[in-house]
Write a structure and sequence with these properties.
Layout: H1 2-12, E1 21-33, E2 39-51, E3 55-68, E4 71-86, E5 91-102, E6 107-123, E7 127-142, E8 148-163, E9 168-179, E10 183-194, E11 199-210, E12 220-232
Antiparallel strand pairs: 1-2, 1-12, 2-3, 3-4, 4-5, 5-6, 6-7, 7-8, 8-9, 9-10, 10-11, 11-12
Length: 234
């Protein structure tokens, strides 16, 4: 069932008309220490988007791994897919899926699928403000005993970006999945400094919060990272 949902979500990104506009970027951050303790951390991401007169599709993949003295301390993989049909330049309906596997969250995996309405207040090279509101169905597999929480969720997203100068921009993405068993909130704040037409350095702060985390696990995780960003299709 899990694989079928993922395959359907990936396939859905193909329903885009010809003459599409492509955009995307890749992110990579790595750090290592040695001496009294050996630590390594790697975070990476890939985001692709294409848009035509009637369709918009995007897919993102993020991963995080960290270890201390050869003992894993973080391991997370997140896949997001979305396909939307545009009524006009500002409004669209969408179908999306989020799959998250976090070894240190207390959940074996979570899958959220949903439909909703999106609205672009503005979206250009300098500024972006997009909101989404929808309903969906979520499965949370508890790691300790492999039981599952299933149920309807309300979905919300806020996507903001502003260029303060030609070389400095701020981005913030807020995602909410609210259900009876648990409410998941993730906020990604980033400060990017362009060093060339294609490359930028990005300082990022991520907060992930579960209102009802499994017993023995903290409700809130944070990640602070420095990354190299490469913009495709420049």
């Amino acid at each position: 069932m899990k694989k079928a949902i993922l395959l359907a979500a990936l396939a859905s990104t193909g329903y885009v008309q010809a003459e599409t506009k492509w955009s995307g970027n890749g992110v990579l951050g790595f750090s290592a220490t040695s001496g009294n303790s050996d630590t390594e951390s790697l975070n990476a991401g890939l985001a692709l988007k294409r848009e035509s007169d009637k369709w918009v599709s995007d897919i993102t993949l993020d991963l995080l791994r960290a270890s201390t003295d050869d003992i894993d301390t973080a391991e997370r993989y997140t896949l997001n897919t979305k396909t939307g049909y545009k009524f006009d330049d500002n409004d669209y309906i969408y179908y999306g899926t989020r799959y998250d596997q976090d070894k240190f969250s207390g959940f074996d995996y979570t899958i959220t699928t949903g439909i909703g309405w999106g609205h672009k207040f503005y979206d250009d090279e300098k500024d972006r403000l997009i909101t989404e509101l929808g309903v969906g169905y979520k499965t949370e597999a508890i790691d300790v005993d492999r039981t599952e929480n299933n149920g309807a969720v309300l979905l919300g997203k806020l996507d903001y970006m502003h260029h303060f100068t030609d070389t400095f921009k701020v981005e913030d993405v807020l995602v909410i999945e609210a259900g009876d068993d648990n409410t998941f909130i993730q906020n990604d704040l980033g400060f990017s400094f362009a060093v060339s037409d294609a490359f930028a350095v990005k300082l990022a702060h991520q907060i992930r919060h579960n209102t009802d985390a499994p017993a023995g696990f903290r409700s809130t995780d944070t990640l602070i990272s420095a990354n190299l960003v490469y913009d495709f299709f420049k």
